[in-house]
């Protein structure tokens, strides 16, 4: 991390501003609103600065910059239109170990000033580390629209009651839970109406209520990998969790979105690799929820599609633990969409079947007759190891060897690859594919030629003409 983010309390602290033109004026405005004591070094003052000086809001040190001016200030902002002058200010500041920001000159900055979304005591600062200020501003606009104006009011009331709440609820986790519940309750509506009295009454009521504090487990589908495919419920759940149990299929990008101080525990499994047994996972979920934690069980794709979500919910139900289920985009939907393969199409596929290539009971045979029917799309999860065998069976039961197939690896992720070919070559395609990989069999795969839009197209096994 190159820039360490911080919010500085500048009340009554002197800072030095070099320059007194239009740009410096903007800087002075925000410094003054933060309560800083602004000292200006500049040969001439624009009318606004003249007024500030007359009103005693700013101290003017004249036009000659001297090292000693840095002695008592906390930092300096160089905002003149003279590049040489700005550089000198920066160099002196460096020598004297004072932070310096030079307007619009990234290499003359030891700190940068972020774009800010301001909701009173709630402030969100956004920075592109000086690389693309316009991008930072764009995001500020987006975030502006997301955060209701009354958030600042809620923060102000919370600030006032913080100590009292601390004295009443000693347990840290319970306290966090109290605040989260409060912010989601009528309290927020009263704050939006600026009815502070009613908001505070609501806070007191909730504070005095003796609600038994129980944990819960949220089974969350994380989707196939691209974090943009998380649902809003999923995002909220992983950002509120105390403990997150995740599998190997959950992408790093998604794990990075989990609340920073949540405990993250891998119960990952991939065919063949060492993993925590399912029974052990079930036991851990119950144990942590019983301690009063908000537990998230984060699973790749959808929890109820080949994800053993059902088994986990049965365990929670038997143990009397409260649970919720947040569905996710399953690989068959996500990976095919990103590969440009529609699952159904009126011209060639009236249905799609999701099948596992890996079953718990070795003896139970799939219904090959049905699977081999034409005019349907087969999507096979966990099947790459048995690809040749599966292709052989399907052909034996009548599916054409020339049926188009695709093997999609790392679907929806930046390193997604798609291998396409014919059913008779499926074994070969799958053997080369990186995992996780999904196999798609059916005429719809050929539509990819027109519809592909994402990631890399690796190889194509075509029949010799
Ligand atoms: N619950 C998950 C499936 C778990 S089974 C879901 O709904 O998607 C694991 C299998 O899912 C893998 O063997 C692979 O076949 C498939 N899979 C999951 N994520 C994938 C991805 N990003 N790309 C390709 N296949 C994926």
TrEMBL record:
<dbReference type="GO" id="GO:0043115">
    <property type="term" value="F:precorrin-2 dehydrogenase activity"/>
</dbReference>
<feature type="region of interest" description="Precorrin-2 dehydrogenase / sirohydrochlorin ferrochelatase">
    <location>
        <begin position="1"/>
        <end position="203"/>
    </location>
</feature>
<dbReference type="GO" id="GO:0051287">
    <property type="term" value="F:NAD binding"/>
</dbReference>
<feature type="binding site">
    <location>
        <position position="411"/>
    </location>
    <ligand>
        <name>S-adenosyl-L-methionine</name>
    </ligand>
</feature>
<dbReference type="GO" id="GO:0009236">
    <property type="term" value="P:cobalamin biosynthetic process"/>
</dbReference>
<keyword id="KW-0169">Cobalamin biosynthesis</keyword>
<dbReference type="Pfam" id="PF14824">
    <property type="entry name" value="Sirohm_synth_M"/>
</dbReference>
<feature type="binding site">
    <location>
        <begin position="43"/>
        <end position="44"/>
    </location>
    <ligand>
        <name>NAD(+)</name>
    </ligand>
</feature>
<keyword id="KW-0808">Transferase</keyword>
<dbReference type="InterPro" id="IPR000878">
    <property type="entry name" value="4pyrrol_Mease"/>
</dbReference>
<comment type="pathway">
    <text>Porphyrin-containing compound metabolism; siroheme biosynthesis; precorrin-2 from uroporphyrinogen III: step 1/1.</text>
</comment>
<dbReference type="GO" id="GO:0019354">
    <property type="term" value="P:siroheme biosynthetic process"/>
</dbReference>
<feature type="binding site">
    <location>
        <position position="382"/>
    </location>
    <ligand>
        <name>S-adenosyl-L-methionine</name>
    </ligand>
</feature>
<dbReference type="InterPro" id="IPR006366">
    <property type="entry name" value="CobA/CysG_C"/>
</dbReference>
<comment type="function">
    <text>Then it catalyzes the NAD-dependent ring dehydrogenation of precorrin-2 to yield sirohydrochlorin. Finally, it catalyzes the ferrochelation of sirohydrochlorin to yield siroheme.</text>
</comment>
<dbReference type="Pfam" id="PF10414">
    <property type="entry name" value="CysG_dimeriser"/>
</dbReference>
<dbReference type="InterPro" id="IPR028281">
    <property type="entry name" value="Sirohaem_synthase_central"/>
</dbReference>
<feature type="region of interest" description="Uroporphyrinogen-III C-methyltransferase">
    <location>
        <begin position="215"/>
        <end position="465"/>
    </location>
</feature>
<keyword id="KW-0949">S-adenosyl-L-methionine</keyword>
<dbReference type="InterPro" id="IPR014776">
    <property type="entry name" value="4pyrrole_Mease_sub2"/>
</dbReference>
<dbReference type="InterPro" id="IPR019478">
    <property type="entry name" value="Sirohaem_synthase_dimer_dom"/>
</dbReference>
<keyword id="KW-0456">Lyase</keyword>
<feature type="binding site">
    <location>
        <position position="224"/>
    </location>
    <ligand>
        <name>S-adenosyl-L-methionine</name>
    </ligand>
</feature>
<dbReference type="InterPro" id="IPR036291">
    <property type="entry name" value="NAD(P)-bd_dom_sf"/>
</dbReference>
<feature type="active site" description="Proton donor">
    <location>
        <position position="269"/>
    </location>
</feature>
<dbReference type="GO" id="GO:0051266">
    <property type="term" value="F:sirohydrochlorin ferrochelatase activity"/>
</dbReference>
<dbReference type="InterPro" id="IPR003043">
    <property type="entry name" value="Uropor_MeTrfase_CS"/>
</dbReference>
<dbReference type="InterPro" id="IPR006367">
    <property type="entry name" value="Sirohaem_synthase_N"/>
</dbReference>
<comment type="pathway">
    <text>Porphyrin-containing compound metabolism; siroheme biosynthesis; siroheme from sirohydrochlorin: step 1/1.</text>
</comment>
<dbReference type="Pfam" id="PF13241">
    <property type="entry name" value="NAD_binding_7"/>
</dbReference>
<keyword id="KW-0520">NAD</keyword>
<dbReference type="GO" id="GO:0032259">
    <property type="term" value="P:methylation"/>
</dbReference>
<comment type="similarity">
    <text>In the C-terminal section; belongs to the precorrin methyltransferase family.</text>
</comment>
<keyword id="KW-0627">Porphyrin biosynthesis</keyword>
<feature type="binding site">
    <location>
        <begin position="330"/>
        <end position="331"/>
    </location>
    <ligand>
        <name>S-adenosyl-L-methionine</name>
    </ligand>
</feature>
<dbReference type="InterPro" id="IPR037115">
    <property type="entry name" value="Sirohaem_synt_dimer_dom_sf"/>
</dbReference>
<dbReference type="InterPro" id="IPR012409">
    <property type="entry name" value="Sirohaem_synth"/>
</dbReference>
<dbReference type="InterPro" id="IPR014777">
    <property type="entry name" value="4pyrrole_Mease_sub1"/>
</dbReference>
<feature type="binding site">
    <location>
        <position position="305"/>
    </location>
    <ligand>
        <name>S-adenosyl-L-methionine</name>
    </ligand>
</feature>
<feature type="binding site">
    <location>
        <begin position="300"/>
        <end position="302"/>
    </location>
    <ligand>
        <name>S-adenosyl-L-methionine</name>
    </ligand>
</feature>
<keyword id="KW-0560">Oxidoreductase</keyword>
<feature type="binding site">
    <location>
        <begin position="22"/>
        <end position="23"/>
    </location>
    <ligand>
        <name>NAD(+)</name>
    </ligand>
</feature>
């Amino acid at each position: 991390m190159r820039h360490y983010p911080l919010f500085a309390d500048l009340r009554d602290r002197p800072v030095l501003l070099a320059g007194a033109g239009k740009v410096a004026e903007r800087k002075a405005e925000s410094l003054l609103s933060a309560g800083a004591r602004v000292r200006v070094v500049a040969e001439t003052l624009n009318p606004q600065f003249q007024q500030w000086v007359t009103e005693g809001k700013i101290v003017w040190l004249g036009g000659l910059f001297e090292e000693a001016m840095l002695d008592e200030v906390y930092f300096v902002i160089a905002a003149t239109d003279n590049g040489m002058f700005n550089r000198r200010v920066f160099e002196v500041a460096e020598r004297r170990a004072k932070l310096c920001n030079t307007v619009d000159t990234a290499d003359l900055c030891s700190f940068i000033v972020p774009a800010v979304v301001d909701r009173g005591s709630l402030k969100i600062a956004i920075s592109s580390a000086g690389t693309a200020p316009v991008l930072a501003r764009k995001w500020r606009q987006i975030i502006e629209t997301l955060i209701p104006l009354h958030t600042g009011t809620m923060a102000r009331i919370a600030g006032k009651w913080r100590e009292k709440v601390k004295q009443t609820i000693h347990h840290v986790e319970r306290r966090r839970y109290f605040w989260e519940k409060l912010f989601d309750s009528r309290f927020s509506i009263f704050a939006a109406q600026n009815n502070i009295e009613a908001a505070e009454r609501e806070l007191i009521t909730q504070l005095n209520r003796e609600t038994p504090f129980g944990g819960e487990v949220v089974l969350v589908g994380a989707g196939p990998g691209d974090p943009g495919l998380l649902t809003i419920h999923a995002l909220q759940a992983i950002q509120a969790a105390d403990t997150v149990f995740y599998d190997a299929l959950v992408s790093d990008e998604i794990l990075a979105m989990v609340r920073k101080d949540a405990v993250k525990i891998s119960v990952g499994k991939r065919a063949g690799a060492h993993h925590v047994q399912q029974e052990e996972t079930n036991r851990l979920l119950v144990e942590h929820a019983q301690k009063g934690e908000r537990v998230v069980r984060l699973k790749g794709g959808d929890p109820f599609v080949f994800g053993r979500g059902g088994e986990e919910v049965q365990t929670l139900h038997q143990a009397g633990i409260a649970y919720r289920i947040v569905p996710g985009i399953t690989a068959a939907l996500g990976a095919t969409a990103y590969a440009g393969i529609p699952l159904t199409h009126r011209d060639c596929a009236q249905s799609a079947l999701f099948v596992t290539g890996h079953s718990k009971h070795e003896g139970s045979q799939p219904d090959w007759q049905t699977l081999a029917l034409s005019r349907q799309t087969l999507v096979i999860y966990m099947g790459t190891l048995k690809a040749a065998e599966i292709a052989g069976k399907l052909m034996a039961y009548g599916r054409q060897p020339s049926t188009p197939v695709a093997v999609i690896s790392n679907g929806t992720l930046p390193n997604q690859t798609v291998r396409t070919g014919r059913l008779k070559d499926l074994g070969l395609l799958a053997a080369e594919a990186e995992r996780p990989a999904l196999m798609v069999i059916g005429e719809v795969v050929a539509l990819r030629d027109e519809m592909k839009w994402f990631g890399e197209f690796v190889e194509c096994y075509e029949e010799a003409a």
